[in-house]
Amino acid sequence: MTVQVLPPGGVVSMTAAAADRLVKGGSGDAALLYLHLLRRGGLFEAEAARKALGWTDARVQEAYRALAGLGLARADADLSPAPAPPEPEGPPDYAAADIAQELEGGGIFPHLVRELERRLGKVLSPSDLKMLYTMYDFLALPAEVILLLTTWCTEEAQRKYGPGRKPRMSQLRREAFLWKRLGVDTPEAADAHVRHLSALRDRERTLLPRLGISGRPPVEGERRYLASWVDLGFDDEAIALAYERTVMKKGALNWAYMNSILRSWHQKGLHTRQQVEEGDSTRPQSPARSPAGPAAQPSPQRAQERLKEDMDWMDRFLEETGKKED
């Protein structure tokens, strides 16, 4: 039975040739970006694509290069993100009288102060109040956003330093400026942002042991690498496989080298261990007799055998090296 599964109206069409190339290319990001471009009449703006798709600049660039590689987009497009708007000179130098007047009024700020004091377990000092008012007035963050930001920073402080630890107001202020630059300035955007950050932290906890890291949180540079790999759509097994190949080549974890492996797989649309083992053709192959028949391709079983052979060879090599040293 034939059933209409797409809503009528608002049709965006593509040629059959384009659809065939996207399917053959195997990149979901490239397909999504192509739909975005069709929806905009072929107009590409890196910043507009980033906002519409909710991606990082790097992910937009990778998807566009994949499209260009398929011949579905111009290769000479400007992929650089739009320049950030100039930073304001800085918040006003709020006087104590300004804040006192706001506290005595009937607005939201007095309630925000009391709730923040309850959550932080202390009375806010004049300096704390000034920083909070900067977030509320100068950054124009709604009270709900400031409270959600406080909850997130409190959880981060306890994760890093132990139960009962509270963030300093300077930390809240710094995070507030970051959220504002990212456009996280509504309750809905803040909720989505926190859920995204929480998901990244959960993935970090499962990935770090598989990268040989334990007993410490990742540093900021390591965290950026992990976040980019998660955003590109890799599962834990694929990232662990990239780590294995990095250690085999470099002898230890090398973040830049591992990143190059994963970026190469992403270009090919390979994001799971099974996809990599079946579809990665960049790995050096041992000389072997060509099987009879045209265009013979290695089977998934043979790929598994090759990996086992490599690991067995490495075990023998290490064992023999240890005997010589003795």
Describe this structure as you would to a colleague.
- With 326 residues, this protein is mostly helical.
- Among the domains are: 16-69; 96-185; 214-279, Arc Repressor Mutant, subunit A (Orthogonal Bundle).
- The protein is 62% helix and 0% strand.
- Helix 8 crosses helix 9 (169-181).
- The chain is flat and about 65 Å long.
String of helices and strands: HHHHHHHHHHHHHHH
Distance between the termini: 74 Å
% residues in beta strands: under 5%
How large, in whole angstroms, is the Cα Rg?
Answer: 26 Å
Oligomerization category of the chains in this entry: single chain
User: Overall mean pLDDT score?
Assistant: 81
Global outline: flat
**Low-pLDDT regions:** 1-7, 284-300
Helix content: 55-70%
Q: Please state the structural category.
A: mainly alpha
- Biggest pleated sheet: none
Number of strands: 0
Key terms:
Arc Repressor Mutant, subunit A, 15 helices, mainly alpha, 326 residues
Short recap of the structure:
The chain is an all-alpha fold and 326 residues long. Helices cover 62% and strands 0% of the residues. The protein has helices at residues 16-25, 28-39, 46-53, 57-69, 96-104, 109-120, 126-138, 143-161, 169-181, 187-207, 220-231, 236-250, 255-267, 273-279, 300-325.
